[in-house]
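User: Here's a chain of 618 residues. Predict its fold as tokens.
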Amino acid sequence: MRRAIFHDGGPRVAAAVMPLTEDYDVHPLTGEPIGAVIVVDARSGAQPNGTTRLIGLVDRDDAGPWPLTWYAVLPIDAPPAMLRRAVGNAFADLEAEADLERLERDLAELNAIGIRLSAEANPRFLLDTILTKAREITTSDAGSVYIVDHGSGGDAYLRFALAQNDTVNVPFRAATLPLTMDSVAGYVALTGRIVNVTDAYAPPPDSPFTINRTFDEQAHYRTKSMLVVPMRTPQGDTIGALQLINCKPGWRGPLPDAAEVNRYVRAYGPRHEKLAGSLASQAAVAIHNRRLYLSIRDLFEGFVKASVTAIEARDPTTSGHSFRVAELTVGLADVVDRCEAGPYAALRFAPDEVMELRYASLLHDFGKVGVREHVLVKSKKLYPADLDRIRHRVELLKRELALRTARAKLDAAVARRRDYAAVASRLDAELAAAVAALERDLDLIIVANEPSVQARDLRDDVTAVAQRVWQDADGTSRTILTPEEARVLAIPRGSLTDAERRDIQDHVVHTLDFLQRIPWTKELRRVPEIAAAHHEKLDGSGYPHGARADQIPVQSRMMAICDIYDALTATDRPYKKAVRPDEALAILDAERRAGALDSALLDLFISARVFERVSRPT
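Assistant: Prediction complete.
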């Protein structure tokens, strides 16, 4: 294509540029041409714009001065070869400037694309952004992305992940194909080489791959120029191939038929290869980083689940509790997120916040790992060994009483008492009554050992048993209960002493301590705070800090409702019977009326029937 030069119309300048018509189209200057070389008389006063180069012709005896904006100054009678060289240099300077501007634009665009790729978290949107931007910077009519995946056996294959086309609208269907040299995408992925063909229907004869025309035939499309670049990480791993089809510089419309393809489609040039290769490398890094992030998240998810399972294994009676609480709490958060009225109408949870809440719920009892196991699994007021010692005392007293009775009968027999039969009968009756009393006391102890709410009379009876003194065979005074055992059996509700209850409550302190040691990401930084406040109550009656209302995160308030509900309805607690869902909701309502629970959140929990999200084993 011949380039055009312009002159100012003066006869001397027109005569000077006439010899250049063999190489250039020469025109008188009209308007303000763009990207042109202009030859003018030095005294014309013409000035170049930012996209032109001006060459001034002067008389040999004209000493200037000349404007600094001129590209060159030549004698009016300079040989045509000199003027031709100056014009050629001016065009080269224009091209260099255009190349520099284009490079700056390309770098700026690639930088902007890289920033967007780094910020995109959704894998689907990430691929869509990669392909869209690749087509934009290469002016491609169509394109597709192939990703290298691995099966369960470790075998690699290509996944047809995404396709775009400005000309035909064909529903995308995900598919897989073998990772071999037979396909152009497979060849590029395996070799890491760029494939650039002017006509896909006529690839180089030595190509190991073939072009599949099935899509073209079905969609009535014509694939002509094709550029396929590998997506390689800086470590040299190829994770896919980016395929671009039908370069159409300066043309943005569809290509409805083969005639339009032949008219507008051009081959991809070296600049396109560099741009597409650079973007493909950025895409590979983005995809690799996303995969790494997901693998780390899966690893952490597995660690959390394994930790929860291990913690609950210390207390098998609460197995599944943390997972159910997490399910209920996330369910309540979903309801809160969708509510349009009430105090939480404006509250919305981002996906990261939901994940944060889920982890906090799963790990809310993490601190139980720091609670002594015998306290954690205590189901009765007395530990089994303590009750066994009481049983042994009773059995020992029975034997001591029997021995004392036998000695008394023996003494009566040795003394040849005439009323021996009556004495022996009386002694046997006394022994039977004492044994019966001991057994009644033991039965009373067993009843009092249950963690259910005790009546005052029962506690008084336990005190009486502890104070009752028995004489053994040697006349030593004995009791079947120690003062400490009597105190434990007199617990009015539950199975824990005050000290043991404090140990259990301290699990929240341990939870905060342990979770704060984990280097949480910015998105999950509030996990320790949320998890550690799930036993706080709005009226300050909770623990460990007695926090009130606004001091308690809303996520912890939600978890408190779900934690209490699950604990009430749990069927696997040996120290209490499970209550029906309606009874549990009534208890929660009573707590709400007492000012302990968030009223608005409990209303949402009940009205949306969040409690039905978990199923119980039958």
